[in-house]
Design a protein that fits this description.
By secondary structure, the protein is of the alpha/beta class. It contains 8 helices and 7 strands. The protein has one domain: Rossmann fold (3-Layer(aba) Sandwich), CATH 3.40.50. The mean pLDDT is about 95. The structure holds D-gluconic acid.
């Protein structure tokens, strides 16, 4: 199991104050990592750190906007100085705006691209410098099954997550020679606050997803922990530019008619 150990590793997880980011951060902590959490909401950060500390995890929080390259540069320097170095970067922070492409304001489209695609680029570019110096590093971009498929109302999110898939492959191409592995995780449909509006009982979308997912259920945030630890650890030292889809099989199938088991 040493291959999966994250002892003496510092993991920076953007948006690690709730949802999937928090679940992945917890898995990294259980594997031995020290957590460096970013967020933008003081109360969420306070609550998240209280939880991490209650479980005995070594966790520190930093409130800044990953889409502001000047602010991010200042904080990456501070985090690096205080922690002794960032070994693992999980680009998890993201937003979604659900609206028809016909009516979505360009400003909303641009905001989603900025947070979900430009933010990961900014953070990767800032953190990779020390990884190159160290000739070692792990970057994990949280993509989505919308990196592969579209659906009504999520054009900005799918464009961003599709772009993040290709950014992952390109950064892997450029930085693998420095023993830096850049990969992605693509969650399917998970039970989080982000999907709450489309998951409520009685909502046709809820039934649709359950019928469309071979595993027959929504993902639970802890379902992502194993993929996160794998991509953050020495176990993935020859894995580059891959997106691991943790989706209950939804991307593997065209689905089935209602009269089939
Ligand atoms: C939606 C959902 C999806 C999921 C997830 C799928 O509105 O379709 O929010 O975007 O959250 O990203 O991978």
């Amino acid at each position: 199991m040493e291959l999966f150990s994250l002892k003496n590793k510092n993991a920076l997880i953007t948006g690690g104050t709730h949802g999937l980011g928090m679940a992945m951060a917890e898995a990294l902590a259980i594997a031995g990592a020290k957590l460096l959490i970013t967020g933008t909401t003081p109360q969420k950060m306070e609550d998240a750190l209280a939880y991490y500390h209650s479980k005995g995890y070594d966790a520190k929080g930093y409130l800044f906007d990953v889409t502001d390259e000047n602010e991010a540069a200042k904080y990456v320097d501070l985090i690096t100085e205080e922690s002794g170095g960032i070994h693992i970067l999980v680009n998890n922070a993201g937003i979604i705006k659900r609206e028809s492409a016909l009516t979505m304001p360009v400003s909303d489209f641009r905001k989603v691209i900025d947070v979900d695609l430009v933010g990961p680029f900014i953070m990767s570019q800032l953190v990779v410098k020390q990884m190159i110096d160290r000739n070692e590093g792990k970057i994990i971009n949280i993509c989505s099954m919308m990196s592969e498929l579209g659906r009504n109302s999520v054009s900005a999110y799918a464009a961003a997550k599709g772009g993040l898939k290709m950014l992952t492959r390109n950064l892997a191409t450029e930085w693998a020679k420095h023993n830096i592995q850049v990969n992605g995780i693509g969650p399917g449909y998970f039970a989080t606050s982000q999907t709450e509006p489309i998951r409520v009982d009685g909502n046709p979308f809820n039934e649709f997803i359950i019928s469309r997912t071979p595993a027959g259920r929504w993902g639970n945030p802890e379902d992502l922990g194993g993929a996160a630890v794998f991509l953050a650890s020495a176990a993935s030292n020859f894995v580059n530019g891959q997106i691991i889809y943790v989706d209950g099989g939804i991307l593997a199938t065209i689905g089935k008619p209602s009269n089939e088991d």
